C-alpha cells in the first residue's frame, strides 16, 4: 500500500514538473526567437498567444501519448446534456459571487495584468484562453494530478483540496489564485463524481469565455463591482443574489445528475 501511495505522489510531482517545464521552456524559447526575429525586446499580444498555444498543444500531446490522462468516450456516449447544461448555468452564476468574494479579501498583486489584458483583447487570444486552456488544464489537473491524488488519499476532499491548491499556485498570479482555488474545488468534485474531465472542460470553457467577453466589453478588466454598478451597494448585493439564484440550483442539479458511467 505504501509503495502505491509513494508511486502516486511521485506521479503527481512528475506531472507538475512536466507541465511547468513545458510552459517555461516553450514560452521562453518562442518569445526569445520572436524577439530576435523582430529585432526588439517588446512583448506583443501575438507573441504571448503563439507561445501559450504552442505550450498548450505540446502539453496535450505529451499527457495523452504518455497515457497520463486516459481519453475515454464512454461519458459522452451517455449523452450527458443535462449535466453540461447545468455546468454552463453554474459557471455563469459563479462569476459575480466569485468577484464579490475576492473583493472582500485583502488585495493581492495582479502581476500578470498587462500581459493578461493583451492576450484577452486580441481576437486570437480566445484560442489560447477560451479553447486550449480549459482542455489542457483539465487533462493535467483533473485527469492526471487529481486522479493520482484520489488514489493516494483516503478522503476524496483532501485530494480535491490539494489539487485545487496546486491548480491555484500554477496560475502564477496571486490575484487569480483565490478564484482558481474555488473553481478547482468544484472542478475536482465534478471529476470525482464522474471520473470524466468532460463536465470540468464545459465549466472551465464557460468561465474563461465569460472572462474573455467581459475583458473586451469593459474599459478596465480589473474594475470593482461597486464601480460597475454605478456606486450602488444595493445593486451589487442584488447582482450577487440574482447570480446565486442561478448558481445554487445549478449545483443542486449537478449533485443529482453527476454520476460515473
UniProtKB/TrEMBL annotation:
Q: Where is the CAAX prenyl protease 2/Lysostaphin resistance protein A-like domain?
A: 123-210
Which controlled-vocabulary keywords does the entry list?
Answer: Hydrolase, Membrane, Metalloprotease, Protease, Transmembrane, Transmembrane helix
Example GO molecular function: metallopeptidase activity
The membrane-spanning stretches of this chain are 12-31, 43-69, 81-102, 122-141, 153-170, 176-192, 201-219, 234-252
Protein known as:
CPBP family intramembrane metalloprotease
| Organism whose genome encodes this protein | Xylanibacter muris
Provide the organism lineage as a comma list.
Bacteria, Pseudomonadati, Bacteroidota, Bacteroidia, Bacteroidales
Amino acid at each position: 500500500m505504501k509503495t502505491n501511495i509513494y508511486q502516486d505522489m511521485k506521479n503527481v510531482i512528475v506531472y507538475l514538473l512536466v507541465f511547468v517545464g513545458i510552459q517555461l521552456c516553450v514560452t521562453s524559447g518562442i518569445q526569445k526567437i520572436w524577439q530576435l526575429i523582430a529585432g526588439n525586446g517588446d512583448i506583443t499580444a501575438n507573441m504571448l498567444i503563439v507561445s501559450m498555444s504552442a505550450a498548450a498543444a505540446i502539453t496535450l500531446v505529451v499527457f495523452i501519448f504518455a497515457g497520463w490522462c486516459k481519453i475515454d468516450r464512454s461519458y459522452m456516449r451517455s449523452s450527458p446534456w443535462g449535466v453540461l447544461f447545468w455546468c454552463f448555468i453554474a459557471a455563469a452564476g459563479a462569476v459575480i459571487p466569485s468577484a464579490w468574494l475576492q473583493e472582500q479579501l485583502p488585495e493581492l498583486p495582479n502581476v500578470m495584468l498587462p500581459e493578461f489584458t493583451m492576450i484577452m483583447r486580441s481576437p486570437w487570444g480566445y484560442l489560447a484562453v477560451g479553447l486550449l486552456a480549459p482542455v489542457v488544464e483539465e487533462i493535467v489537473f483533473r485527469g492526471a494530478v487529481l486522479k493520482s491524488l484520489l488514489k493516494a488519499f483516503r478522503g476524496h476532499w483532501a485530494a480535491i483540496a490539494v489539487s485545487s491548491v496546486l491548480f491555484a499556485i500554477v496560475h502564477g498570479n496571486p490575484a487569480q489564485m483565490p478564484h482558481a482555488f474555488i473553481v478547482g474545488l468544484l472542478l475536482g468534485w465534478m471529476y470525482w463524481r464522474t471520473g470524466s474531465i468532460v463536465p470540468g472542460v464545459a465549466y472551465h470553457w464557460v468561465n474563461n469565455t465569460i472572462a474573455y467577453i467581459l475583458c473586451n466589453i469593459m474599459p478596465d478588466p480589473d474594475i470593482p463591482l461597486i464601480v460597475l454598478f454605478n456606486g450602488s451597494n444595493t445593486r451589487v448585493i442584488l447582482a450577487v443574489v440574482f447570480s446565486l439564484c442561478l448558481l445554487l440550483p445549478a449545483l443542486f442539479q449537478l449533485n443529482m445528475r453527476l454520476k460515473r458511467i
